[in-house]
Every structure is written in C-alpha cells, then in structure tokens.
Amino acid sequence: MDHKRSSDGSDAPLPTDGAVLVIGMGRFGSRLALTVDRLGREVLAVEKDPEVIRRWSGRLPLVEADCTDPEALEQLGARDFPIAVVGVGTALEASVLITSNLVDLGLSEVWAKATSSEHARILRRIGASQVILPEADAGERVAHLVSGRLLDYIEFEDGFTIVKMHPPKEMIGFTLGQSQVLKKYGVTVIGVKSPGQEFEYATDDTRVSRQDLLIVSGNTTLLDRFAARP
After folding, report:
1. Can you give the CATH number for the domain in which 44 is found?
2. Do 74 and 151 sit in the same domain of this protein?
3. What whole-number distance in Å separates Cα of residue 84 and Cα of residue 44?
4. Element (H, E) at 158
5. Is 13's pLDDT higher than 80?
6. 24-33 average pLDDT score
C-alpha cells in the first residue's frame, strides 16, 4: 500500500536535507509551514485530509499521508529530517501516536503542539523535544503586554524573560549608572533604542530619554514589578 503522494501527483523523492517536516495543515501547521518556506528553508508538509491537500496544492511541497501509521513515515523518509513539527492538536490520540512514531524513528528534534497541560505532559513523557501550547502561551504573553508598559515579551525556561518597554519615570534624564536598575530591582538593561538611532548596547553612561525603548532581561517576577513602576 502506497502512503505517499506529492502535490503534483508524482512519486518523485522529495528533498530532506536541512528540511522541516510539518505534519498537520490546520491553522497552526499551515502558518508554520508557510513561514518556514518564506524564510527560505526547505519544508515538507504532510496532511491526511484530501480536501486540505487540494486547498494547499501548488503552494507548498505537500504529500498526503496518515502519519499515525509508522510505515507511512518510513515511506516519507521522515527519519532523514533534522526536525519535525506535529501540528495535529485537537485529535489527541493522533497527536500522541504521530509524536511517538517520530521519536521511535530516532529524530533528534520532535516539536509537538498541545491543547492542554495534560496533553503537553503526555507528549513530553513520550519524548517530544519541545511542546508548544499556542493558546496558553499567547494568552500569557498578551496578559503581560496589556497590564503595563511592555511592548514585547519573550519568556524562556526557568523564569528568564526579555522584554521591550518604555522607561519608568525615575529613569528619564539619568544614565543607567545613576539609575542603578540592577541593584534596585534585580533586572538588567541590555540596550536602549532611541528614535531614529541605531540600537545601543547599554553601558553605565547610557542616558535614558522619555522617547527611548529599553530592552531588559531578568526573572519574570522581578521584571513584572519593574515594568509596573510609573
């Protein structure tokens, strides 16, 4: 039984060198695949629904396959991809089976979308390298952005965060050395972006104006407190 068909109907082998394998062409997977393609990296999208295949045909390298079947992944040459992303989320059983199949094939990087903390826990347990919770992550990020002067927010592991923000009033007109932000608040100003100027890495002599944007790093809780200052 043949599990694979390219979007142009041919059975020609598809390139896998340095490529990203994206399984599931829903909203998350399709956006991911299009962005990877736009960034100039090889991508192969996989979807089992013929209607979705027709919708995306000609726009991306695309094959029709049911990746809950390990044989289908073997025929795709999935083990040759350096990274695979499982965009299937709402069908929990399929998500777990596909992720498990990819891990069993020995892929070093298997990223998987989860729809709940329990789903994420299962995916981690079976060996997913990274688990993405799009709605939870987006909700947390927006909550930080709407609650203060933050303009952008990136949280890493272990509570480390980098933010872009307007400066608190107490910093305006003073150098970073005079403000003593690290000593007072436990966060580090990495750099300052003034209107019409190049980004400047922060030094003690960097003077902050009202129009500046600060790039600040540190513990998430400490940054929240710092950003809440008037």
Report:
1. 3.40.50.720
2. no
3. 9
4. none
5. no
6. 92
92 and 38 in one domain?
A: yes
pLDDT at 14 over 60: no
The string of DSSP codes covering 62-90 is EEE--TTSHHHHHHHTGGG-SEEEE---S
Q: Identify the DSSP state of 57.
A: B
CATH number at residue 170: 3.30.70.1450
Average pLDDT over residues 211-222: 93
Cβ burial 90-120 (10 Å sphere, 16+ → b, else e): eebebbbbbbbbbbebebeebbbbbbeeebb
pLDDT band at 107 (very low <50, low <70, confident <90, very high): very high
Q: What is the pLDDT of residue 157?
A: 66
Q: Which residue range is the domain that position 163 belongs to?
A: 138-227
Contact between 16 and 44 under an 8 Å Cβ cutoff? The reply is yes
As for how many domains the chain has, the answer is 2
Q: What is the pLDDT of residue 29?
A: 92
Nearest-CA neighbor of 6 among 49, 46, 33, 66? 46
